[in-house]
Amino acid sequence: MVKQKKDIRLIALDMDGTLLNSNDKIPKENREAIHCAHEKGVKVILSTGRHYHTSHKFADELGLSSYLITGNGSEIWTTSGELIDRQLLDVALVEQLVGLHKKHQTWAWMASTDKIWRGEIPDNLEDYEWLKFGFDTNDEETKQLLMDELSRNEQFELSNSSTTNIEVNALGINKAVAIKKVCERMDIRMDQVMAVGDSLNDIKMIKEAGLGIAMGNAQEEVKKSADWVTSSNDDCGVAYAINHWVK
User: What is the pTM assigned to this prediction?
Assistant: First the structure.
């Protein structure tokens, strides 16, 4: 566990289960803490599994003015809407994932560059550019079978954003890699980053940041990977972490 203060110049925040409470809102305390961080010269970015279309409004609400990492790192945007980087999931791999979804009869969602498909699979997969594929099931045996099959394919980056799902990106696509790209643009070192999250898609950024923080509601594996554990998303854990570490 970290005991001494860090030179924090960038805060990378996951959204669901982290910045947002259970009502999908940003608590007032989190907004105020982020504003105080800005006043101290610390940049704040959102680093989320969400699509750009469902995340940029929260960056706008916070008045952020740098970068937005979406799709678990498959895209990097400026907060003004300019695409900086995009890494796609090959359509042949998407076809394999669709096959697994049908084989195991899970619920599924898919993110292309311009649309989110929830509970439906388009017939013309080759007509889209794909960013991410997600499986969801409450059946632990089915989820384990899926993980076993997916793990045998070395072209997949596997994570989750809740305990019932599996998220699949192209190999090497994750939030940590995207944050490093942002840091290069901002002349900030990774040891000057504070990363906060709650799920497996946050583990790599939590491990590679100078200060990795898990939410009180985080999955146990995330807590074990973190330097420090804050309060839950419904107890303004982001505000508590910023107020504790950013001085």
Answer: 0.96
